[in-house]
C-alpha cells in the first residue's frame, strides 16, 4: 500500500488533470465525489476541493449526458482542454533516445498519453512534420519518424523542444540555492 502512495505522490498535477480529462470525455464523472473515487482507483489521492479545481481548470461543466443523466462535459470546439492545463510538451519530456526511425521519450508517471496526444496534434497541424505517429504507455512514448533513418534527428528535435523548460528550471534552482 505504501508503494502505491509513493507512485501517486510522484505523479504530477498535469498527469492527474490529463486523467481527469479522459474520465470526463468517457462520460464517467457525474459529480465531484465520483471524480475523487475514480482518481483514487487509478492511484491519485485527491480531496474534493482538488477535484473541483481540476474540473474548473479544464473548463468542465455539468449537463445532460447521452442517457439524460447529468455528467461533467468539456466544451465542444474552442480551446483544447489539455492546452488549458499544461504547457505542452516540454515539461513532460524527461529524456529521449533513438534507434532507426524511432524516438523513445520518457515522461513522468502518467504523462505519456498526454505527451503523445500533443505530439500527434502537432504532427497533424504541421508543427512536427517528421512524425508519422506515436504509441504511449504510462511513462514512455514511442515516436515514429516518417523517414526510415529519422529517429536520431527526431530525438534531437524533441530534446530541443524540451530544453527551454529544463534551462529555466535549472536557473530557478540555482537562484533558490543562492538565497
Structure description:
This protein has a 4-stranded antiparallel beta sheet with strand order 3-4-6-5, with helices on one face. The protein has 7 helices and 6 strands, in the order ααααββαββαββα. The protein is 49% helix and 17% strand. It is elongated. The protein has helices spanning 2-10, 13-25, 32-41, 48-57, 81-85, 112-124, 151-178; strands at 61-64, 70-73, 95-99, 102-106, 131-136, 140-145. Helix 3 crosses helix 4 (48-57). The chain has 2 domains: 2-78, Winged helix-like DNA-binding domain superfamily/Winged helix DNA-binding domain (Arc Repressor Mutant, subunit A); 87-178, Gyrase A, domain 2, CATH 3.30.1360. With 179 residues, the protein is α+β, with helices and mostly antiparallel strands. The model is unreliable at 1-10 and 165-176 (pLDDT under 50).
**Overall 3D form:** elongated
Q: Write down the Rg.
A: 18 Å
**CATH topology (fold) name of the largest domain:** Gyrase A, domain 2
**Number of helices in the DSSP assignment:** 7
Series of H and E elements = HHHHEEHEEHEEH
Give a quick set of tags describing it.
four-stranded antiparallel sheet, alpha+beta, 2 domains, Gyrase A, domain 2, disordered N terminus, Arc Repressor Mutant, subunit A, elongated, 179 residues, 49% helix
